[in-house]
Structure formats: structure tokens, C-alpha cells
Amino acid sequence: MRSPTLTEAESSVGSGEAFIVHAEEIRRLILMVSKTAIRDLDRRLDASGAGISGLQFGVMRLLNHESATISELSGRMMLAPATLVPVVDALERKGFVQRSSDPRDRRRNPLVLTENGLEVVNRVHFTSDMDSLAQGLLNLGEGKAQQLQTLLYELVNSLIADDALVDRALAMT
Amino acid sequence: MRSPTLTEAESSVGSGEAFIVHAEEIRRLILMVSKTAIRDLDRRLDASGAGISGLQFGVMRLLNHESATISELSGRMMLAPATLVPVVDALERKGFVQRSSDPRDRRRNPLVLTENGLEVVNRVHFTSDMDSLAQGLLNLGEGKAQQLQTLLYELVNSLIADDALVDRALAMT
DNA sequence: TATTGTTATACTCTATAACTATA
DNA sequence: TATAGTTATAGAGTATAACAATA
Lengths: 173, 173
Prior knowledge:
The structure is a homodimer of 173-residue chains.
Chain A lengths: L7 H6 L2 H33 L5 H12 L4 H8 L3 H13 L3 E3 L11 E3 L1 H9 L8 H9 L1 H21 L11
Antiparallel strand pairs in A: 1-2
Helix pairs in contact in A: 3-5, 4-5
Chain A binds a DNA duplex (23 and 23 nucleotides) through helix 5.
């Protein structure tokens, strides 16, 4: 039971069925890996005692590279700006992030890490060698890990070609 | 700034640094792809008019293969049993799923799809050729899509070796 | 004692709509 | 008109703890 509409790409290649099968299986595998990765980070954040969530940590990590506004973060993380307001509120309450202001455009409130925030970002990592994902890649071997990374990179770039929303998404929780 | 503890695997290979870098990047890419896949399904479910969420659909899809209890589903989906209770409640309210009983073990309540539920599962698919992911794989080409699938499969099996929780996770939202 | 299903509860993640201030 | 940030609100997803029924 297929969708009756054929895309140009599908009809030009003529093997849409195979790709659906791939997509379904790849989807399943990717979701399993990502659930594992999210749980890895949550577990490590719990152990760190910093008292922050994965999303809060994702924001701090982006701010570690460069200051950014809520709008800019929302673009990079594929989230609605309103979603980030309580996240930033919490980080400010905990003293890890501060809202600053831009004299040249007073609508903007660039966020900056405090010293405490910096300390947390440097202490807790997104990925540690103890994580299931890192261990899994270790089991896989260097060559295959490299191959996988390359293929995923190409896939994401292919997604970008089709999907404006992924466009500026450079980092995520 | 590394974790001071070395795992056996890491010290035996002696290149933990490289794997951390891989893991960090692969983590990022995988999360982007999975966010895209989840959004694909949500969009399709909205369009289908069935009025169900991704998680609800995931449950129905597992029941399409064979009847299962909440406990069994929670194992396969890596979720707490309590998480699934309101999900099943909603599906039962909508008339897509029914709780039955097992005379041989009266603690168990195997879930079964109703006729309406069956219709929904067969009409809406997890993945369609219109999805960003399917399109991305199409752009990637058959050979690379196959390679990617194989590598992900090996990775998940490597995860399983390290992580009992992923063990029975055969399907996810 | 252990397991299945459940209730109660709470927290995180997420979005939409409507608003204020600024451009 | 458009953008940045916000408030209000709502809903989905998730977990833990404690309990009843059953094994």
C-alpha cells in the first residue's frame, strides 16, 4: 500500500520501494542510537551535580563557542524561540548564563556564559569515553566509525537540500 | 580535560581521543536526523486525520505484528511501563486498541488492535517516500544508503553488547 | 517474594497565539 | 511592517514511588 503520488526523484530513479525499506530501517536504528545518546548525557549530567537538563546543557554548550540570542539559538537548535525562554530563565536563575544587551539593537539580548557556567561546560562533556555510544563506536573500530561519520554527514547535507528547517541546525540537545 | 578513568577497551586500543571526537560528531548528526524523522511522522499523522501521536502510533505498529502487554511493549520501546498506561488509555478511548485478558495469567492484559486500529496502521506508514529522510537517502544514492544501514546495524549491535537496556528495543516512536 | 498493571505526581520538552518594545 | 523577546497556555513524553491483584 503505497502513497499514490510519485516524486520526481523517485520516478526518475525508479526504485522508490527500496528506499522506503532503507528509510524505515535506518529510521528505527537512528532512533535507537539517539535515545541511547540522550540517556548517556542525562546520566552524566545527573552525576555531575550541576542540576541542569540536557536542553539546558545544549544551550550552554552553544554559548561556549560564541554569544548568541534566543532567536539565534532557536534557529540552530530547530526549536521555537518561546521554547527557550524558560530554559534560559532556569540557567539565569542558577547563575550559569546572563542576558546582556546590544546597544546597537535594543531588541536583542545576547546571552553570555558566566564564570560558573563556563566551569560546568568545561567539566561536563557532551560525550565521554564512558558513554554507550563511544563504547559502541570503539567496538565498531576506527575505520567503520569514520565511514559512518562521513555517510551521516552526507545524509544531513542531503536533508538540508530538501528541508529549510534543518538548514541552520548546527547543534542539538 | 578528560575523564581520569580509562576503560579496558580504550587503553587496549590507545586512541580514545579519536573516538570521543567521532562520538561527539556522530551524536550531533544522529540527533539531527532523528529530529527530522520524528517531525516527518508527526506531520504525516497530522495529515492522516487519525488524531494520534507518534508514540501512540508506535504502540499500534508493534501490536500490528503481534499482541503484547504493556510490560512487553515497555521493554521493546525502552520506556517505563507507567509511561505507556495513558498512551494505551488514549488508544482505547479512540477505539484503536483493546485490553484483553490472559486466563492463564490473570495479571497480564494483552493488547490487541481493533479493526479501526488495523485500518490506521495500514493506512499511515512510519516512513513515506515524501519524507525528508527518504528524500535524503534518495539524494545519497542506493549504494551509500545500504552502507549506512549496515554500519548503523553494526553500531546498534555494539551498543547492545555494552548496554542491557537497548537489548530488547526492537522498535521506537 | 516477584511481577503486572495502575495511580499519583512532577518535571522536561515543545508549540501556538497574542503581546510589548524596538527597528 | 517586521523582528526580538516574552507571557500564557496547552499538550506530549518521561520517570519514580507506592499500591493492588496475582503468581
